[in-house]
């Protein structure tokens, strides 16, 4: 059975054994980053105006890296 959305973890007998842990921890980590910080993109970029051009390599990276600056949300 092929689960294409899990392809970042590799496949077959040597696939990532950390998959179950990562599938639980990545949403917690992402949620914490969104919840605890206000994020500002450097420069004046309109919503929807983000440059999504990519650079092909072993992994697919953004051509122009995104610089997002976090500010701690006061609790
Ligand atoms: C988002 C998180 C993670 C990603 C995307 C990821 C991705 C990968 C990939 C692509 C491989 C190579 C698979 C292959 O050769 O087919 C791998 C191997 C491995 N990963 Fe992860 N991994 C993650 C998290 C973790 C965690 C949390 C652990 C341990 C707690 C872990 C432990 C390992 C180990 C030990 C291997 C070597 C497996 C082997 O060669 O038999 N990984 N991982």
From TrEMBL:
Highest taxon in the source lineage: Eukaryota
Gene3D superfamilies the record matches: Cytochrome P450 (1.10.630.10)
Keyword annotations: Heme, Iron, Metal-binding, Monooxygenase, Oxidoreductase
Molecular-function GO terms, alphabetical: heme binding; iron ion binding; monooxygenase activity; oxidoreductase activity, acting on paired donors, with incorporation or reduction of molecular oxygen
InterPro entries, alphabetized: Cyt_P450 (IPR001128), Cyt_P450_CS (IPR017972), Cyt_P450_sf (IPR036396)
Pfam families: p450
Keyword Transferase listed: no
Keyword presence, Lipoprotein: no
Similarity comment: family membership: Belongs to the cytochrome P450 family.
Protein name: Cytochrome P450
Source organism per UniProt: Daucus carota subsp. sativus
């Amino acid at each position: 059975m092929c689960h294409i959305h899990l392809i970042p973890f590799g496949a077959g007998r040597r696939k990532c054994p950390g998959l179950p842990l990562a599938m639980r921890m990545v949403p917690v980590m992402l949620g914490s980053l969104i919840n605890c910080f206000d994020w500002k993109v450097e420069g004046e970029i309109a919503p929807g105006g983000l440059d999504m051009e990519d650079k092909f390599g072993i992994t697919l990276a953004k051509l122009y890296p995104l610089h997002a600056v976090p500010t701690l949300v006061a609790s």
